## 1
Amino acid sequence: MNTKEILEIENQHTSGVYAKQALTIVRGQGASLFDADGVEYLDCSSGHGVANLGHAHPKVAEALYKQANTLITLFESFPNDQRAMLMEKITSLVPGLDRVFFCNSGTEAVEASFKFARISTGRKNIIAAMRAFHGRTFGSLSATFNKKYREGFEPLLPGVSHVAYNNIEALEKTVNEETAAVILEVVQGEGGVYPASQEYIQAARRICDERGALLIIDEIQTGFGRTGRLFAIQHFGVTPDLLTCAKSLAGGVPMGAVLIGRHVQNLTPGVHGSTFGGNPLSCAAANAALDIILSEDLPRQAEVKGAYLMDRLKRIQSPNIREVRGLGLMIGIEMKQKVALYLKALQERHIIALNAGMTVIRLLPPLVITYEQLDHLVDVLSKVLIAEQKDE
Ligand SMILES: *Cc1c(COP(=O)(O)O)cnc(C)c1O
């Protein structure tokens, strides 16, 4: 199929819930993507933080091929070698989180964490942060802040409220004996790339402990090396009670997980479950992905490349830039204008980047991006960001 045919069919049959690009992508390699005509694009989105290992990693492909020829599906009631291996591997990475629940996406991991928090504490209320993004199914949507995602879908889950992010006083005032859990992102992604302060995350841990609430850290976007640590929470010396992850967990294959600490109780048979959760195919992909993340030391690569990119971005002299911020290879460039036209200009120059809200350009390149590619990105960005973008 050529580009025109693909676009025509998708536009005719789409559900309508996606703003479709006029660009087809049919192949990937490392940090590069290719359209149906073979034109190369530099991927600075990683599918919203999924492709941390780069596209078409041969070791993930090999693991998938082998496992597909062995066993694809198995309900979690039946123990399995690939799943056991992954359980052991992933729980060894975060001291204090010794159990894990597997599911298939980020929003499902958040849903599970809310159910676990309620059944464990016997309390109902969940406190989330303003600007937070935790997913789009009803439970997680209730914790997502932006009206844009919520409007038209009320009533949402009762007992979920939002407090100002990075504001200790707001947590002090709100968390109480009826709070089941506080859920936070360590760096707010969708909300505009806002990193949490040390004091804030540490205070959140203390306040939850004092009031008997659980702390859920949502690492769906920040996990697996993105911010310069395997998990972003490791910058803070804090152990959450529940840690949600997904996106890059299985090297691009759909998978989510909740890591579970020892204060979480009452997780007995039948309390929760998932048909596809912990299937051997996804587990094999995740085993391969974790091996690659550790052997190629992708967290360190993100730290060093992130610092390099941040430094070069901060030197771009443009009256249109308000702020450059982030952690590791999770970087936001806040502009004084809406960014849609900047993103369009980048795409015309074969760079795929994301927005985070109306005024922030979000860069989430694969952690395997080369320095040559980073330099190219900065060169193109400097040109695009200096020019004022005007509606045609
Ligand atoms: C992407 C994301 C989610 C939702 O994940 P899905 O797999 O799209 O359901 C939840 N929380 C955060 C922080 C995310 O970035």
## 2
Amino acid sequence: MSESRDMRKQELAANLEVVEDRIAKTLSDSNRVREEVTLVVVTKTFPPEDAVLLYELGIRNFGENRDDEGAKKQPLLPADARWHFQGQVQGRKIGSISEWADVIHSLDSLDHASKFASAPSAASKEFFLQINLEPEAEHRGGISKELIPQFLEKSPVKIFGLMVVAPLSVNPSAAFKELSVLRGHYGLPGLSMGMSGDFEEALKAGATHIRVGSSILGSRPSLA
Ligand SMILES: *Cc1c(COP(=O)(O)O)cnc(C)c1O
């Protein structure tokens, strides 16, 4: 193993340990168990080698925001790695996203749902419906909560859960609690919420999937 590879691996291992300690402490305070929660490590903008190191450290769930990056990294890891797409969906990329992503966190259009439904292996994928809790603010993807029943009724793909990115203008824990209530109301199993800055609040509110990048990989050179 080269020295720099070894150093990077140690750095990732140390960061993972800190994140896992924070997860463990929060879950024990909420009387929840680790098995209920999937840690998705967001490798966007980082090189494929980092994903390989994380795999060697036991990580099996990887998050990407862009089709081209996910398509490049997915073939480099063993088949038991699960790839999560959480970026804004573009209709013309759905065929390609379907080839490498196992879980879609950012579904927010029925038209996109139909395109995913007719792509290969749609039945084995998990879909989260992205909710926008402040539709009047700057658009960051997601449908407003009023449209959830209609989406669930019409969607040609089975919706596994709800996903949110905490709005900038709202206290994240209030947003997470609201999403948790909606999830319960519609009887969905999954709740994808919480990033590096707010995953503890999300876990307290019942998150089943947290999407953590910079706390594990370091700060990103550019926004993705
Ligand atoms: C980038 C991103 C994350 C990870 O963010 P960090 O703050 O680096 O943990 C999670 N979810 C989505 C939708 C993202 O775009």
